[in-house]
Structures are given as C-alpha cells and as structure tokens.
Design goal:
46% of the residues are buried. The chain is globular. The chain is mainly alpha-helical and 327 residues long. Helix 1 crosses helix 11, helix 2 packs across helix 3 and helix 8 crosses helix 9. Helices cover 75% and strands 0% of the residues.
Length: 327
C-alpha cells in the first residue's frame, strides 16, 4: 500500500546482521590494505576480483547479464555511486582518520536514506519512529566507539567530509536501486560490481604510484581478498536480497550495526576487551532498531490500550461497606 513503510521479517534481520559483519570487517581490511597500496588501487583490485567471482558464479548458475543496452547507463550510475565513489572516499578518508570515526560517519547513512526516501518515494515516508530510532542508533554508535573520537581529529575535516559524502552516496543509490526491482540479486550485484570495475580502471592507472612494487605482506594480500570475496561479492548478494524485500530505508540500517559487528569481531578475533561503554552503545543501537522496526512499540501501545479498555469495560465494584451501613 502506498505510504505504508515496509517491515522486515526474521530472515531480513538475520541477513542484515550478517551483512553488517561483512561490511564491519571491510573497515579493518581497508585500514590494513592502504598501508601498502594507494586507496584507488585497493578499490580497483577489490571490485575487479569481486566482479570476476560474481561473473563466474553467474555462468555456473546458468544466468545471464541483461541484454538491454538502454539499461546499461543506469547500471553504470549504480556502479559509480554505490561502489566506485563511496569505496574511494572511505579508503582515502581512512588514510587520515581512524577506522572507528569512519564507521561512525558511515553510520549516518540511514539518516540520509530515511530523509531521501521520504522525499523521493511514496512507500517509505518519514515517521516519528524512524527519526527517534536513527537518533538512538547514532548515539549508540558514538557511545560504543567513544565520544572522545569526535573531538580528537579536528584537523582532518576534509577526510571526515569524504566519509560523510560516501554515506550520502550510499543513501541516494539505495533508493535509486529500487528501479531494478525484479532483477535477480546475483545479476544485479554482478552488473553493478562489473561497472564499478570499469569506472575504477582509468582512475587506478592514473593514480598508480610510480615505482610501486608488489612485494606485499601477507596481511595486505589477505585483507584485499577479504574485501573482494566477503565484503563485496558476498555482501552485495545479501544487500540486494534485503533491498528487494525490505526497501531502501531498511537495508541502509546495516550501517548502524557495522560498529557493533566491528567491536564484536575485535572481541572474538583479537581478544579486545568489551567495556561498559560498548555494552551501553550496543543497547542503544538495539533500542533504536527496535523503535524503527515498530513491532515492540506497537505491542506496548496495544497492551496499554487493552488494559485501558478492560478497565473501562470492567470497573471496580463499589465499596460494599458503603451499602452495608444502616441509615
């Protein structure tokens, strides 16, 4: 129904959590990779390897790329603003600011997405629950990583604006991608990443550092592979699956979960300590997502209405002692 916000089921929430883990790991992979490679080289290798993988899977499953020449211009726009531009901005920004701050700035994506969806769509309008939920989620993301990080890197305003630009780009193309409804997630992911690789080829060639050698360390090689296979090829299959069933403003909520996933991965893989601030931040993010989802709020509101209606229908009997008194 027009004007009615879409709601996610258990499958969509599970996929969104998995997607947040894949993209949460991307901030770690990217930070390692840009130590030895230029940001644009990392982006090119990331999308090129992912494109090769997805095209191979497409052939193995018997599916084909779209044959409509008129649509390839739209696919090129999608690959530019959903991959080439935001990937480049984030990786460039990570050479100047901490990954934690980058993930907080990236977490503004659902705020942009909800606003743009309200302006550009008929079925994903702004609601008080969405506004409150995003505010709670952003507060949770900052609490989880630490409020001090917002004030410790004031000299890198350009890098911060770059990551904010990436968030805005993600939000806009999340809505733009709705026009491909009905296209299989594997086909759409393959076309988008392939177009991104075409965009990044001349950029990588023009910005490739002179004298760059490929005697790369094992951590960098593994990080680039992780970016391509997990954080791009697999991640975008999931992304387009959730987008098709839950809508743009819902799938963009993944950026609120990314700091949670990044901290969880740090605790599980690197043995990092989880303190009170991290727990509080995760609780705020969870509360924000619950408010946006709406079912908990609706259940609580329904429970209050039921109790009020029951009280009106079955008022307490008058005090019997009053009637038992003699005149």
């Amino acid at each position: 129904m027009a004007g009615e916000s879409k709601r996610m089921g258990r499958v969509e929430w599970a996929l969104l959590i998995l997607l947040s883990a894949l993209w949460g790991a991307a901030f770690f992979f990217g930070k390692v990779a840009v130590r030895e490679l230029s940001p644009f080289t990392v982006v090119f290798v990331r999308v090129s390897l992912a494109a090769l993988i997805l095209n191979a899977v497409l052939l193995l499953t018997g599916q084909r790329l779209p044959r409509f020449p008129g649509r390839w211009g739209e696919f090129m726009i999608l690959g530019l603003f959903n991959n080439a531009v935001p990937f480049s901005l984030i990786f460039w920004g990570q050479t100047r600011i901490a990954s934690g701050l980058a993930s907080i700035l990236n977490a503004t994506t659902p705020a942009w997405g909800i606003l743009l969806a309200h302006l550009w769509t008929e079925d994903e309008k702004l609601t008080p629950n969405k506004v409150l939920g995003v505010v709670l989620g952003l507060c949770g993301a900052v609490t989880l990583i630490g409020w001090d990080i917002l004030f410790g890197e004031r000299g890198n305003v350009l890098a911060q604006l770059a990551v904010l630009g990436a968030a805005l780009s993600y939000a806009a193309t999340g809505i733009y991608a709705k026009r491909f409804k009905g296209t299989a997630p594997l086909v759409l992911a393959t076309v988008q990443i392939s177009c991104a690789a075409l965009w990044m080829l001349p950029v990588a060639l023009l910005t490739f550092p002179s004298g760059q050698r490929f005697d790369l360390s094992l951590p960098v090689v593994l990080s680039v592979l992780g970016l391509a296979v997990l954080s791009t090829a697999l991640a975008y299959l999931i992304y387009f699956r959730v987008l098709a069933s839950a809508g743009a403003s819902n799938v963009l909520l993944v950026t609120l979960l990314i700091p949670v996933s990044a901290n969880a991965l740090g605790a599980l893989v690197l043995g990092e300590r989880v303190g009170v601030e991290q727990v509080l931040g995760m609780m705020l993010i969870g509360l924000g997502l619950a408010v946006i989802d709406g079912r908990v709020v609706a259940a609580l509101a329904g429970s209050r209405k039921y109790r009020a209606a029951s009280a009106r229908a079955d008022p307490e009997p008058p005090d019997a002692s009053v009637h038992s008194r003699k005149p």
